[in-house]
Recover the amino acids of this structure.
């Protein structure tokens, strides 16, 4: 049973079936199905990016998770959607997802959160890295891109 009131979901960068964010979204779906999602949000903007890419209905996925008797059943469902994607396309999605820089209102929220978590880490410019920092994972220092 996934209890996100006591632990955290897997990192956005951890792959499931070769796709980033899928493991994290699955963990949040499991916790939501068990009533133990805590402060985490299933079907958040990062999950939606994944769901849109895989053409996955978040409500249907949650039902699969609720009714699954094992992780194998969850993976089998997701595998049918992943199989429709070309490996090069998946690689491009993963790279873009992990490097996406927030904009607009998301950027404001991002900068406030980074200021609380790690104000000196101005090299952290993506949500996956910031979430990893917030959850206590090691995030390597990166060279800042100069415009």
């Amino acid at each position: 049973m996934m209890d996100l009131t006591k632990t955290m979901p897997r990192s956005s960068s951890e792959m499931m079936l070769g796709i980033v964010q899928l493991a994290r979204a699955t963990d949040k779906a499991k916790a939501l199905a068990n009533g133990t999602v805590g402060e985490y949000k299933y079907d958040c903007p990062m999950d939606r990016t994944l769901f849109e890419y895989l053409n996955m209905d978040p409500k249907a996925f949650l039902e699969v998770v609720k009714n699954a008797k094992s992780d194998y059943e969850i993976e089998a469902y997701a595998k049918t959607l992943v199989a429709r994607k070309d490996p090069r396309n998946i690689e491009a999605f993963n790279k873009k997802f992990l490097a996406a820089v927030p904009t607009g209102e998301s950027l404001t929220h991002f900068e406030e959160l980074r200021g609380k978590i790690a104000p000196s880490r101005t090299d952290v410019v993506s949500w996956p890295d910031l979430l990893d920092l917030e959850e206590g994972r090691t995030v390597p220092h990166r060279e800042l891109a100069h415009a």
User: Anything to note?
Assistant: The two ends are 46 Å apart (CA to CA). The CA atoms of residues 114 and 146 lie 20 Å apart.
